[in-house]
Amino acid sequence: MMQRRKCSGVSWKSKNSSIRNTHPFGSEPSNLGTFIIIDCNTSERSGTESEKLAAVSKLHPDVIFFQTTRADVAKMFLIDPEIKRPALVLLEKESKQLSHFDGPFTDARIYDFISLNKIPPMITYTRETAALILDSHLQELWLFVTVHDSETKSIFQEAAKAFKGKVNIEIFSVYFQMDLLQTDRRQIFGYFGITGHASRVIAVNGFFNGEKYVLNGELTLSNIKSFALDFLEDKLRSQQSDTTLL
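The structure corresponding to this sequence follows.
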């Protein structure tokens, strides 16, 4: 049986679903990782909704769960006071970007929402992140650049942020350092048909079996965002002048 305690209208669900006497505006905000705020009515603080959140929290031990009934907390996290409660918003720790949940309040949908949005808008390919990227069934947008091309990296990161937290948009944006990373480089280069060190953006529908498209032209913010949006809307096949099917 899950015990419950209050602290200034905010409760915290740890990875083992217990309630800790703290809140996101206490003595340790700078130490917080990615966290979820759930704004609910007083009558919803127990029962089915809390049981669903407790179940999901066990599956995301790297995410901190807060539950509140305070209007000032909801306002701080841009939760519309007119929408039906409970309302759920995720703050990703690296980008500080808010993602609002817009779907049925079920275990599966909440789990999927957190799985996607707890990830930074742009993921750097490393030994630690390789499995997450390569095993994903989501559409992926890859940037291949040398470590010295910080300008293109920044542009790509801004494009990635534009799609983060949007309803019905599920895409990984992956940053691959061509001249530094040795692990898996030959496999990745072979899969994408890469030779040389020219910067490029490639979209792929699922890593192992999906179609791959390369963006032709200058890697500007506008071009990358348009390319990504057309990729998500399955329009690239008809745009061979702007893209190449690998």
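Helices lie at 48-59, 71-76, 107-117, 130-134, 150-163, 185-192, 221-232.
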